[in-house]
Write a structure and sequence with these properties.
339 residues, Rossmann fold, single chain, UDP-galactose 4-epimerase, domain 1, 2 domains, alpha/beta, 7-stranded parallel β-sheet, 4-stranded mixed β-sheet
Length: 339
């Protein structure tokens, strides 16, 4: 009888990590280990706390990407068969004010994890290293849609860190024969999206305005950036297929949605489904990045051909669910900064 598979999700308390845990609980019989810092907010996995406390296939383990010993101790305990490496300093704007922390966490943290997996895995695990479409940065219109061979032109310290993450993953596959694959996921969102990201801060502000907690003004940064939108629930399904459908060591894939529009048009859609009709939009200079990746439209044919995956959740549902997520939090009496 085959032993039960063990999956490790780094960054389980984040938006993607929490949805990854949801998906694996619902669609596999694996034991799932969620790695997070001891001080990480647990809001995104609150709905799973009964299972965590009962040790019902979901377990939390402490680790810190900037601490090699903590990584090795965690891996010695978990000994995973599958790894979804999602933990990162993931806020591009924060990376401009904390570039060294971003580079250490994302580049060296990934190297520490992969080095640990060389020593502490019972068998060579299948590893997903999550890079980002931000590695492509500022892309000219003649290169759209962006395929995997598009040159890198990162537009933030975060994006630079994800170039390193991407290359380190591929290096460990080629140098050590490890089954490591990297993904460049384009914009993905939905419930539990952090409020430092454009669509989520817009939805949060609208929910607070509807509740009478803010004046009817949504403050924005750059609205002209073009994005292709995907739902986080489609993203985690893609990540599962990545590690289970004939994984190719060293492979790298673009993954993303099929609906493209500017950030401004996304905001217009959120406003169109609000209960208020008097909301104005104002540019907040503090929300404008020093440099921005303004054309993010993916070519996902390589990944779709390999796995059969395609996005299923429409843009309209993603945005409606995101807005409802913030309405529910406001209705429960939570208070938030207006960032």
């Amino acid at each position: 009888m085959a032993s039960v598979r063990r999956a490790l999700i780094t960054g389980v308390t984040g938006m993607v990590g929490s949805h990854m845990a949801d998906f694996l609980l619902q669609n596999t019989d694996w034991e799932i280990y969620g790695a997070c810092r001891w001080r990480s907010p647990l809001d995104n996995i609150r709905h799973l706390m009964d299972r965590i406390n009962a040790r019902d296939r979901l377990h939390l383990v402490d680790f810190e990407l900037r601490d090699t010993v903590s990584i090795y101790n965690m891996l010695a305990k978990v000994r995973p068969h599958y790894v979804f490496h999602l933990a990162a300093q993931s806020y591009p704007t924060t990376s401009f004010t904390s570039p060294l922390d971003t580079l250490d966490t994302n580049i060296q943290g990934t190297a520490r994890l992969l080095e640990g997996l060389r020593s502490y895995a019972d068998e060579r695990p299948v590893v997903h290293v999550c890079a980002s479409s931000e590695v492509f940065g500022r892309v000219s219109a003649d290169k759209l849609p962006i395929n995997e061979e598009c040159s890198f032109h990162p537009a933030s310290p975060y994006a630079i860190s994800k170039v390193g993450t991407d290359l380190i993953g591929r290096y460990y596959a080629e140098a050590y024969g490890m089954t490591v694959m990297t993904t460049r996921m384009f914009t993905h969102t939905g419930p539990r999206r952090g409020d430092v990201f454009a669509e989520s801060t817009f939805a949060k502000q609208i929910a607070m305005i509807e509740a009478g907690l803010l004046p009817p003004v949504v403050r924005t940064g750059n609205l002209g950036s073009m994005r292709t939108w995907a739902d986080v629930r489609d993203a985690v399904r893609a990540y599962y297929l990545l590690v289970t459908v004939s994984p190719v060591p060293g492979a790298y894939y673009n993954i993303g949605g099929s609906f493209s529009c500017t950030v401004g048009d996304m905001l217009k859609h959120l406003l169109s489904i609000s209960t208020r009709r008097d909301i104005r939009v104002e540019l907040d200079p503090e929300r404008v990045r020093p440099i921005d990746a303004d054309l993010q439209v993916p070519d996902t044919r390589k990944f779709q051909a390999h796995t059969g995956w395609k996005p299923e959740i429409p843009f309209e549902k993603t945005m409606a669910d995101l807005l409802q997520y913030w309405r529910d939090r406001v209705a429960h009496g939570e208070t938030f900064p207006t960032r």
